[in-house]
Amino acid sequence: MSFKSKGEQSSRSFVSKKWTFLLCLGCFCAGMLFTNSNRVETVPQSKGIMRATAMEAEKQKLISEDCNLKAVSIKEEKHVSKDIIGEVFKTHHAIQKLDKTISNLEMELVAARAAQESLLGGSPLSTDANKAKSSRKRKYLMVIGINTAFSSRKRRDSVRATWIPQGEKRKKLEDEKGIIIRFVIGHSATTGGILDRAIEAENKKHGDFLRLDHVEGYLELSAKTKIYFATAVALWDADFYVKVDDDVHVNIATLGETLVRHQKNPRVYIGCMKSGPVLSQKGVRYHEPEHWKFGEAGNKYFRHATGQLYAISKDLASYISINQHVLHKYANEDVSLGSWFIGLDVEHIDDRRLCCGTPPDCEWKAQAGNVCVASFDWTCSGICKSADRIKEVHRRCGEGENALLGFTF
Quick check: 124 pLDDT over 50? Predict the structure, then answer.
């Protein structure tokens, strides 16, 4: 091989090594540059991910706080609602207590007025009014007013001989059982006449009359009923006030047991409820002069208790007493009483034991353990010939003295 050829070979080898070195260096630099660019791009991406994670966590925190606030709000609302319900109950109780206080004050006012009017007018009521102060200190179960007339002496004596205790027994009935019983009568058209003197003499003997400031008369029964309740509620603080006719047999203990079941109701009206026809024809018994108020001919009355015996609670008796000057009077007293309660929140109790028939009806019921409260004949609106027959009714249908002695309320 020549020298020239050796030189060319060495030169090519040198060039080849030089370019190889440069190429390697360029590749290294390019790799470094590419790596740096990747790092620069990765950092913002990681920062974005971190920011997104932080935002998500913040959202979760806000949602959690919102839920907690809602839960707290719900708890507070429940607590507030409980407080409101509690306040409503307290307010309702306070209103009831206030109503009772007002009712008692009205009762005291009525009693004071009745006593004052009786004293100024010289009415026989003044005797009972003097006892009102002491009698109103205690509570009675019921006041039984027996409607009677001047001509009914025999009826009264027959009632005294049967279902009304006499003397010390009647006083014991008042003191221990809280039951007041009085014959109810007004005065004659000629005050102080022979009829009034006869009643005064009878009252001195028995002491069982309640005299009203009222002129007696059959057509005045509605007025008498109104005055009776007003007078009785002024004299005695009782749970119930009863009206019964003097030709009806009554079992007092059974009546008391019946009324006790309704003591919690402040406005109750108890009796044998009926709805008879409105009689427009003149001259017939129970004719209704104001029949046109009840609509077309042939219409019936509203529901009301039959007049032989019924009972009303204290609140209703007080209502009658307070509003007696504006309460309308119909021809029939039982209709009048029923009309006074229309529009009021009154519970009507229809108890058929308050209107049993005379034997054998009341006797069969007594034998079956369902003792009647009151017995009479529907055909006579009382016991037919009661002065003669009431003793037989009492013997066959009476509850016995032991029932009254064992009765408590």
Answer: no
Pick the CATH number of 139-406 from 3.10.310, 3.90.1720, 3.30.70, 3.90.550: 3.90.550
pLDDT at 118: 45
Q: Which pLDDT belongs to residue 108?
A: 58
Q: Is the pLDDT of residue 405 over 90?
A: no
Give 243's contacts (C-beta < 8 A, 6+ positions apart).
Answer: 145, 147, 184, 225, 228, 229, 307, 309, 310, 311
- Two tokens, residue 177: 């059982």
Reported as a pLDDT band with limits 50, 70 and 90, residue 338 is very high
Task: Report the C-alpha gap between 144 and 229 in whole angstroms.
Answer: 10
Written in H, E and C, the secondary structure of the chain is CCHHHHHHHHHHHHHHHHHHHHHHHHHHHHHHHHHHHHHHHHHHHHHHHHHHHHHHHHHHHHHHHHHHHHHHHHHHHHHHHHHHHHHHHHHHHHHHHHHHHHHHHHHHHHHHHHHHHHHHHCCCHHHHHHHHHHHCCCCEEEEEEEECCCCCHHHHHHHHCCCCCCCHHHHHHHHHHCEEEEEEEEECCCCCCHHHHHHHHHHHHHCCEEEEEEECCHHHHHHHHHHHHHHHHHHCCEEEEEEEECCCEECHHHHHHHHHCCCCCCCEEEEEEECCECCCCCCCCCCCCCHHHHCCCCCECCCEEEEEEEEEEHHHHHHHHHCCCCCCCCCCHHHHHHHHCCCCCCEEEECHHHHECCCCHHHHHHHCCCCCCEECEHHHCECCCHHHHHHHHHHHHCCCHHHHHCCCC
Greater model confidence, 129 or 174: 174
Q: pLDDT per residue over 294-336, tens digit each?
A: 888 888 999 999 999 999 999 999 999 999 999 999 989 999 9
Give the count of beta carbons closer than 10 Å to the beta carbon of residue 202. 17
| 348 phi/psi in degrees, rounded to 5 | -90, 120
Integer Cα distance of 210 and 234 in angstroms: 12
